[in-house]
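Reopening this one. Same input as before:
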Amino acid sequence: MRIAILGSGGVGGYFGGRLAAAGADVTFIARGAHLAALAERGLRIESPLGSIHVPRVTATENPASVGPVDVVFFTVKLYDTDSAIQSLPALLGPGTIVVPFQNGVDSVNVLVRAVGRGPVAGGTTYVSAVIAEPGVIRHTAMNRLVFGALEPAQQPVLERLRDVTTAAGIDAMLSDRIMVEIWAKFARLTAFSGMTAVTRGPLGPVLADPDLFAMLQASLRESIAVARGRQIPVGAKLFDEIMAAMGEMPPGTKSSMLEDLERGRRLELPWLSGAVVRIGAEVGVDTPTHRLIVTLLKPHVNGRPASAGA
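Same output, byte for byte:
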């Protein structure tokens, strides 16, 4: 199975690195200093599950040099989606499946509009990973991929993908309710990312402080209410399941949005808490906690200008 990682940052670099270390045929599509480091030194993953170094990886900035593959991991940041879509035609063959392992709930529809429904599956991921330096991924928590077919013809390729990812030590799930899975992850992530970003700290202090804990719970309830307002049949116990899962995460776990905020990068805020507010307005669900999160983070949504100080 040939796999292309379109977006080789924290998510794509981590899962692609695990696959490459297990012997899978993986090509990383990257750019800049990260691409140069991959070409010169390979990929290193620092992880509590065991650090690995893949001294030689296939990496390029030119998708045309890769050609059609079996599966594309579409793992760019949400604000880079439109530009990354321009790279997809070179990677698509008659049976190629594109799986968007991105945050938010818009990716499937965006990709379907761009390349049609046939190649696009659904996907989501649970992982905390970031580029620590060019060529190095720092992984701190979680190790899960969830994906599922939108068309019956996709099933055989996704079954092979499940087998390949499982063999690489990844907790992989092939779901027959992938849109429910995507929205369940969205509910969890919007609360987690919003609260860690507005407090400028990891999850532990949020869980430990009664007022912040109450705000976290309120944000999660709003996200779940929006999902139900969209007629997504999320489970009755989803709130309790998410809160229990957060309680089991390492106290030092940071959301990718907090990592981006600390580095002065653009934020995925419009597709996370911003999307909760937007969709909530569409379905008649009030979202005051996420509206506050959006308001507080809005000055930072476009990142810190390169000329600004640290």
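So the earlier flakiness isn't reproducible anymore. For the record, The first strand starts at residue 2 and ends at 6.
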